[in-house]
Design goal:
The complex is a heterodimer of chains A (272) and B (327).
Chain A: H1 2-32, H2 37-41, H3 55-86, H4 89-104, H5 107-122, H6 127-151, H7 155-163, H8 168-196, H9 223-232, H10 236-264
Helix pairs in contact in A: 1-10, 3-6, 3-8, 4-6, 5-6, 6-8, 7-8, 8-10, 9-10
Chain B: H1 13-25, H2 28-56, H3 58-64, H4 67-70, E1 74-75, E2 80-81, H5 84-115, H6 118-133, H7 136-163, H8 178-202, H9 206-214, H10 219-230, H11 232-248, H12 251-256, H13 274-281, H14 288-323
Antiparallel strand pairs in B: 1-2
Helix pairs in contact in B: 2-14, 3-14, 5-8, 5-11, 5-13, 6-8, 7-8, 8-11, 9-10, 11-14, 13-14
Classes of the chains: A mainly alpha (272), B mainly alpha (327).
Chain lengths: 272, 327
């Protein structure tokens, strides 16, 4: 009985791990044969024509991530500093709890939020609105992991700095943050990886675009939305390109995750 | 412990105010206030989010009241909006996902926390956390081209043949269905159940295991009758967390559920979910009432996940604290 049940749990783990490798394998096999130089350098072909690429979607995703970072990184990192260094018992708990709840808000609801706050007033879809939605999603991830990484800095370091007469703020900026900077980078990279694959909040904020999107006030294409529209379209050639985009997106996300979790955070425990 | 307690100023008010001035000059109070503002902005954003959902759904809430939740008819042309098919679809797909993911996820978590050597456990957990990082649109892509054909050609007909006498597995098999969405969701939420459950299982103090083993129980009995019950609140928390994710998941479900606004008892029939209808119709919602009805659906989703996440966090905080170990 004992042996049977215990090996069953092992089977469960094996099954779930094998799903990951199956997903990876299938995606790489399917997307790999569709990837070409054109994919990275050309605009989408007119509907019905084969060929073309997703250059505008790649640039669009980068622009969206830039806006999201401008909003998500400062609030996340500085908010994290507050929680770990100053956070009072009650107010700290409230901020922490709200952050966790914000983290759990479905991404489509964040999309509605960005739509009613920005699109409804500017009257058109834009990179700005999409970036805002992604920025809102970045905040809780960055904030909580920054806090965890800062808390992992040994207390003796802080005490040492203060014993030398440094003010609290001086201690934070010249001792605590340098000691935890790789952790903070990890936090930021993980947050970027997470939002770069988000589709739902972009559907009605950044919308989509088959051409280049100049400036920040036009609808823009992005990789995840392109995967979605191409996958549900009835054209064989679009499916091929959806797989290619899938491989590129997954490659980016997994690479960011692996770099963050292994290289950057070597020697420090990655809190989740 | 991050903060260093400073003894309260016992000197007179004059001295206290002088020390306040000095701290202002050295920038400490300014820095405190500065970081506080950024932290408080999280509360502001969350309240603003709720506020926007609330006022933008006012029209629909006033017109339909509670009937919104149980009427069937979703008709943008005649401006009749009832959310029952979406609520039903959301609940059914999430329940299916948990039904599949919980046993497997819990099994895997037990293996990782109790049996596997630390090195192997860490490596496997790393891989499982990568699985959680895969974007949902990629699961949708694989869902369309792998799971939908699998349900249409193999699983659907087989279920119909064996369980066709129940109303759960009847009607034509299109491939897109509640069941397909449930399967895809199960794969998506399993990593959350595993990584959180593993953590709470690992936070169970070792003397619990040792006591059970010394009383003569087998390894499995010690795990199943002592360790798992000890961690049950945390495990329940992980399940709530997974449920909240499943309820709010949009892309993968939209791509495989078929998007038909009907309530159908058969799990092989196509359906619709709250998140999917918002994704499909929001950008083309003409008319204030239509828009407002979709925002109200968003509000429902927001409140559901808010409550579930709130409970889940409290349960997880409670267990990992009681375990007194570093999770």
């Amino acid at each position: 009985m004992s042996v049977v049940m215990l090996s069953l749990t092992g089977l469960c783990a094996l099954l779930i791990i094998s799903i990951l490798f199956f997903i990876l394998g299938y995606l790489v096999w399917n997307g790999g044969k569709s990837l070409s130089w054109d994919f990275f350098t050309r605009l989408p072909a007119p509907v019905g024509e084969a060929g073309g690429g997703m250059a505008n979607a790649i640039v669009g995703t980068l622009k969206l991530l830039l806006i999201a970072s401008l909003m998500g990184i400062p609030i996340g990192v500085i908010g994290g500093i507050y929680l770990s260094e100053y956070g009072g018992r009650v107010f700290g708990f409230i901020v922490r709890y709200t952050t966790d709840l914000l983290n759990g808000v479905p991404s489509i609801v964040v999309g509605i939020f960005a739509y009613s706050l920005i699109v409804l007033h500017t009257k058109h879809f834009s990179t700005l609105a999409g970036g805002f939605a992604l920025g809102v999603m970045m905040i809780p991830i960055t904030l909580r992991s920054t806090e965890d990484f800062l808390l992992a800095v040994p207390r003796t370091l802080r005490e040492g700095a203060m014993a030398l007469g440094a003010s609290k703020w001086k201690t934070i900026t010249s001792v605590v943050i340098p000691a935890a900077y790789r952790g903070i980078l990890t936090a930021v990279l993980l947050a970027l990886a997470r939002v770069s694959g988000e589709t739902a909040p972009l559907l009605f904020t950044a919308f989509s675009n088959r051409y280049w999107s100049p400036g920040w006030n036009q609808p823009t294409a992005s990789l995840p939305v392109m995967i979605y529209t191409y996958a549900i379209a009835p054209y064989e050639d679009w499916h091929r390109q959806a797989w290619a985009a899938g491989v590129v997106l997954l490659g980016l996300v997994l690479a960011a995750n692996i770099i963050a979790r292994t290289v950057l955070s070597r020697g420090i425990a990655v809190p989740r | 412990m991050a903060t260093i307690p400073i003894a309260p100023d016992s000197a007179g008010p004059a001295l206290a105010s002088r020390s306040l001035a000095r701290r202002l000059v050295s920038g400490d109070q300014v820095a405190h206030l500065f970081t506080l503002i950024f932290a408080a902005s999280v509360i502001l954003i969350t309240s603003l989010l709720f506020y926007e959902l609330w006022i933008n759904s006012a029209l629909s809430r006033a017109k339909f009241g509670w009937a919104f939740f149980y009427t069937q008819n979703w008709d943008p042309i005649f401006e009749q909006f009832g959310a029952r098919p979406f609520i039903y679809g959301t609940l059914v797909t999430s329940a299916l996902a948990l039904l599949i993911a919980v046993p497997f996820g819990l099994g895997a978590a037990i293996f990782l926390a109790e049996l596997a050597p630390a090195k192997i456990s860490d490596a496997l957990t790393f891989v499982i956390e990568l699985l959680a990082a895969v974007p949902s649109v990629i699961y949708g892509l694989l869902g369309i081209f792998l799971v939908v054909p699998f349900v249409r050609e193999i699983l659907g007909p087989a279920l119909k043949k064996t369980f066709g006498f129940t109303p759960l597995f009847t009607g034509p098999v299109y491939g897109v269905s509640y069941l397909t969405a449930g399967l895809v969701l199960a794969i998506m939420v399993a990593p959350y159940i595993i990584s959180v459950s593993r953590e709470v299982l690992m936070a169970v103090p070792n003397d619990q295991r040792e006591a059970a083993l010394s009383l003569g129980s087998t390894r499995w009995e010690a795990t199943w009758k002592v360790v798992v019950p000890y961690a049950r609140t945390g495990i329940l928390g992980s399940i709530f967390l997974a449920l909240a994710r499943a309820l709010g998941e949009t892309m993968a479900v939209t791509m495989v559920i078929g998007n038909v606004p009907k309530v159908d008892l058969s799990l092989l029939a196509p359906g619709y979910t709250i998140a999917a209808v918002i994704a499909n119709e929001f950008s083309e919602a003409a008319g204030n009432l239509y828009f407002s009805a979709l925002v109200e659906l968003g509000l429902v989703l927001f409140l559901l996940t808010f409550i579930l996440n709130g409970l889940a966090r409290l349960l997880i905080y409670a267990t990992t604290q009681r375990g007194a170990a570093n999770p």
